């Protein structure tokens, strides 16, 4: 029996567990199983690997996408550049880090992009935000991170800096924070939503609920909106291809 799984904490509302269970049933895959491993510290990873030597792959979620790098024996160029890993392939006891978030995000972004989407604001600064930035850089779309705290970094601004003019002139807004995620669905990033118009594209990496308050506020003003469900499906399928050695 080959075992795969997800590490992170907490994992009470995990997408991956139910997705792979359905996939295995749908495709009649009987020699594999997918489990949730809610480890409270990333330092527990070696013990997990020792306990389950049949592990062949792991997905990585909050808060370990960056912390897990020190446990990898090798990593893709994307992981090196981004500094975040959400997929680990385990072969002969060696751990290779991949980032399938970049694949998932690029695939949902491509059909939505229009010529006026030349600048973006990435809400959040974590591992997912860095994957988003990697895709935007590849597509030559300029961007700034938006952080709750002030930063001396030239590519990071605060929410206070997100004025109406800034929002009006930046037509691509991507939320990578957990604000608005179930069960706290009444939350949203603090932005001047009245500055959003019909040329805006709002993407929220949250998938539960399907329409976060962030997306609702954009949709009310005519913006195109997209949640994170399709991205999760795409990155999960890409993880499976990596684990199976399929290019």
List keywords for this structure.
alpha/beta; 2 domains; globular; Rossmann fold; six-stranded mixed beta sheet; six-stranded parallel beta sheet; 247 residues
Task: Report what the structure shows.
With 247 residues, the chain is α/β, with parallel strands linked by helices. It is 30% helix and 22% strand. It folds into two domains: 2-99, Leucine Dehydrogenase, chain A, domain 1 (Rossmann fold), CATH 3.40.50.10860; 103-230, NAD(P)-binding Rossmann-like Domain (Rossmann fold), CATH 3.40.50. It is built from eight helices and twelve strands. The strands form two sheets. The protein has a six-stranded mixed beta sheet, with helices on both faces. A six-stranded parallel beta sheet has the order 9-8-7-10-11-12, sandwiched between helices. Strand 11 (201-204), helix 7 and strand 12 (224-226) form a beta-alpha-beta unit. Helix 4 (101-109) packs across helix 5 and helix 4 packs across helix 8 (229-244). The protein is globular and about 55 Å long. The mean pLDDT is 95.
Helix count from the secondary structure assignment: 8
What Rg, in angstroms, do the CA atoms define?
A: 18 Å
| Fourth-level CATH superfamily of the largest domain | NAD(P)-binding Rossmann-like Domain
Mean pLDDT: 95
Helix content: 25-40%
CATH architecture of the largest domain: 3-Layer(aba) Sandwich
SS strand fraction:
15-25%
Shape: globular
User: Strand order within the widest sheet?
Assistant: 2-1-3-5-6-4
Q: Main beta sheet: strand number and arrangement?
A: 6 strands, mixed
Q: Tell me the number of structural domains.
A: 2
CATH topology of the largest domain: Rossmann fold
Order of helices and strands: EHEHEEHEEHEHEEHEEHEH
Classification by helices and strands: alpha/beta
What is the tally of beta strands? 12
Tell me the span between the first and last alpha carbons: 23 Å
Specify the CATH class of the largest domain: Alpha Beta
Unreliable segments of 5+ consecutive residues: none
């Amino acid at each position: 029996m080959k075992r795969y799984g997800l590490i992170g904490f907490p994992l009470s509302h995990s997408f991956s567990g139910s997705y792979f269970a359905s996939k295995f049933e749908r495709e009649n895959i009987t020699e594999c199983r997918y489990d949730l491993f809610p480890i409270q510290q990333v330092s527990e990873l070696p013990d997990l690997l020792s306990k389950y030597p049949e592990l062949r792959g792991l997905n990585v979620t909050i808060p370990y996408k960056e912390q897990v790098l020190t446990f990898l024996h090798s990593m893709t160029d994307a992981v090196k550049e981004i500094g975040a890993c959400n997929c680990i392939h385990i072969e002969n006891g060696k751990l290779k880090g991949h980032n399938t978030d970049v694949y998932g995000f690029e695939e949902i972004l491509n059909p939505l992009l229009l010529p006026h989407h030349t600048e973006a604001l990435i809400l959040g600064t974590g591992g997912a935000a860095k994957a988003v930035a990697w895709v935007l850089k590849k597509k030559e779309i300029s961007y700034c991170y938006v952080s709750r705290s002030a930063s001396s970094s030239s590519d990071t601004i605060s929410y206070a800096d997100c004025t109406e003019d800034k929002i009006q002139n930046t037509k691509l807004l991507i939320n990578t924070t957990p604000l608005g995620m179930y069960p706290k669905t009444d939350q949203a990033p603090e932005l001047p939503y009245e500055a959003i118009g019909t040329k805006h594209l709002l993407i929220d990496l949250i998938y539960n609920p399907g329409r976060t308050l962030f997306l609702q506020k954009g949709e009310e003003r005519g913006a195109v909106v997209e949640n994170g469900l399709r991205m999760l499906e795409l990155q999960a399928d890409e993880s499976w291809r990596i684990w199976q050695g399929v290019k």
